[in-house]
Amino acid sequence: MVFSSINQAVDALTPVKENYQSLANRISRDASASDEVVLSTPFTIYPFEYYYHGAAVIDTLPEWDRRTGPIPSFNSATLPSQVTELSSGHHYVYLVLSYDQGYESTIHDYYTKHFRQFSATTYSHNLSLYVYQVGYNSSVPLSKLPAGDLVQTSVRDHERL
Length: 161
Fold this sequence. Notes:
By secondary structure, this protein is of the alpha/beta class. The protein has helices spanning 2-10, 20-30, 45-51, 79-87, 104-114, 155-160, and strands at residues 36-39, 57-60, 92-98, 116-124, 127-133, 151-154. A six-stranded mixed β-sheet has the order 2-1-3-5-4-6, sandwiched between helices.
């Protein structure tokens, strides 16, 4: 029993707690009410909401209404219509990819092929954030617009800022 506890604490292959706090803090700071957060793994809405205190709306892919029942199965045939519906009326989507359920790359590839990607940040092994422009809003302050090409960072880069 003691050995397994020590092994879990020091073994490099032991799963690490995902860094939802840094992720949520970044989105809370950067996203506005005209933006949207999309979580690729619906059950991760719970740790994300625990830390998130921002103005952007939170949705999941596949779309899940927690009040009506269990998480629906992912269907790649309905992905385009779900993304169109979720993106409607928003300027940026903060796409959170974590705990791949077998369809994460399909969602990521769809956003990458159909929208302009502004940044990519890895927060921990199974937790990444991609920011896409999905709409246009002339009232977006220049300070929110990226200065150049795609920005790729890790959470360590953000902690130094």
